[in-house]
Design brief:
The complex is a heterodimer. Helices cover 45% and strands 15% of the residues of chain A. Chain A is α/β, with parallel strands linked by helices. In chain A, strands 1-2-3-4-5-6-7-8 form an 8-stranded parallel beta barrel, surrounded by 7 helices. In chain A, strand 5, helix 8 and strand 6 form a beta-alpha-beta unit. In chain A, helix 2 packs parallel to helix 12. By secondary structure, chain B is of the alpha/beta class. Chain B contains 17 helices and 14 strands. Chain B has a 6-stranded mixed β-sheet with strand order 3-4-14-9-10-13, with helices on both faces. In chain B, helix 12 links the parallel strand 9 and strand 10. Classes of the chains: A alpha/beta, B alpha/beta.
Amino acid sequence: MSAHEHISAAIRAANTRGEPALVAYLTAGFPRREHFREHLRRVASSADVVEIGVPFSDPMADGVTIQRSSREALAQGVSLGWILSELEMLAPRPEAPLLLMSYLNPLLAFGAERLADSAERAGVAGFIVPDLPFDEGEALQPALSSRGLALVQMVTPVTQPQRLEQICAASQGFVYAVTMTGTTGKNVAVPREVTGYLDSVRALSPVPICAGFGIRSREQLVRLRGHVDGVVVGSALVEVLERGEDPAKWLQALREG
Amino acid sequence: MTLSSITEPTDALADLLAGRLPDARGRFGPFGGRYVPETLIPALERLEEGVREHLRSPSFQQELAAQLTSWVGRPTALTFAGRLSERWGARVWLKREDLAHTGAHKINNAIGQALLARRLGAQRIVAETGAGQHGVASAAACARLGLPCTVYMGSIDMRRQAPNVDRMRLLGATVVAVSAGDATLRAAIDEALRDWVSDPFGTYYLLGSAVGPHPYPYLVRELQAVIGREARAQFLEQTGALPEAVIACVGGGSNSIGMFHAFLPEREVEIIGVEAGGRGEALGDNAATVSYGRPGVLHGTYSLLLQDADGQVQETHSVSAGLDYSGVGPEHAFLAHVGRVRYESAGDAQALEAVRALCEAEGILPALESAHAIAGAKRWAASHPGGSVIVCLSGRGDKDMPTLQQTLLKDEK
């Protein structure tokens, strides 16, 4: 099974338990860089897929929480190279597939081929790049594809039908369905238009779909059940880590109510 | 996506001159493109369609020309700087964008995009500003057209440029302080983009420089190209020839791209962009992106960028807030790559010296941004005795009085 199939499989496996899979995000090295591997292990023990945020100086798609966590991680010297070497040292490797979420520029600076090699060595299954729309994907796609690594694509409620179809066909691992226009982290209700939009994405997509942006409560999760294969929890989990609480317990509560 | 994807610089320049760039994907050779969150793609596609439909249409051009003439005050003068020429030993002309309404070239773009926004049915305008000049121009243009306007401005810049904050408010704009990130222009652009992401259809993002995702670099260049068109015609009329050189300052690069465009086909005209050399060559000490930057992606475009080895965008320094930006427009990166424009830098001290020179010799107080171009012209004059040069005087310097009081005037008290 290639890395990107591993991601899809992990999400589908969670679904067989009748619940959306949990895709959990943490900013690497936040709040403390020396706790990164321990936090990652705790998060991975309760999540089905883990997204590791690579901090960037200009996180334009993110809300205040992830802006803050990124800035603090950078101030502690967290870099893509450091993250990859930490992951390489991770033993045993968590069962949940690991994705890196990064803006494009740190990846370009690292170099696409070198990135794909190092990611494979570090056990990374794929990438989410919020400022790399699928039609600009040539910057990374070839290097990642040749090693079976996923490049997860995003769709939004304002994506036009023809483009939606192309994106779903191109996405690997899962399709990241942004539930609202706007940045990450705001709490949103899940109105009927949103479930309708998610249903239509799910019908089109050959890979699982996960909803993200603004997911922070059990209530939202219940509302999304049956419309998605998974949910992405980002800012809310970063805040849990910031408060010094146990991320595994929090994720468990989100899952079980 | 590497520099080697341009095979032959001369062919690439021919493509630009023939109007084939940016290409269908918004690229100038390898530079440009559209690196934005998926949420913004439909809005950018709609903007691109709007640009295609309206920008060159006779009715839009007529509407724009009427505003430029009766409200902005175009054409602006081309002034022969007689006493400065005598001192420097070369003939110097100034393209007087400082005489445009609100005191800088920014208004050419602001009124043009505001007219476009109205045609696209926008309910509100958002803009970013660094020094405050684009914010003031946007606020004025929106007031003129009756559109609500929100301007994002870094909290550090708000303190540095307090008079411009009050001007924007007086002109009816809502000014929002951005304390995230570096609390200057870069953070203001990030925040304006975040606002736009929340309402990509009702809101129009009025970007102030020739940067950002396609079609902005093209749109801003087209709206600023009036500077070079006028200057070329005025110079021909006054002298019967073309200048030997054309010089403008480059931050994001909107006044310069506007100035340069009409002269690009004239191979005998030397074209020079002057960046902010700040206080030195080290990363963080200047804003000279073409001179010291490496290719990368910031604010939706692939261009040159001041960044560290990990691809983190670096903070910049310049005495001039308007040049204090870590990126540069993709068309400038292209023009540097094909060798049609030479980019050099002038430091803080040289810019300040140029402010004094222009005040004393010609009775004109230039903006600190424009003073970098004046400093570049002085250097050019020294190596081209008797030569002729047009300098784009992109704005007036009244806004810089607080900085000048702390620098040039400090020793005199």
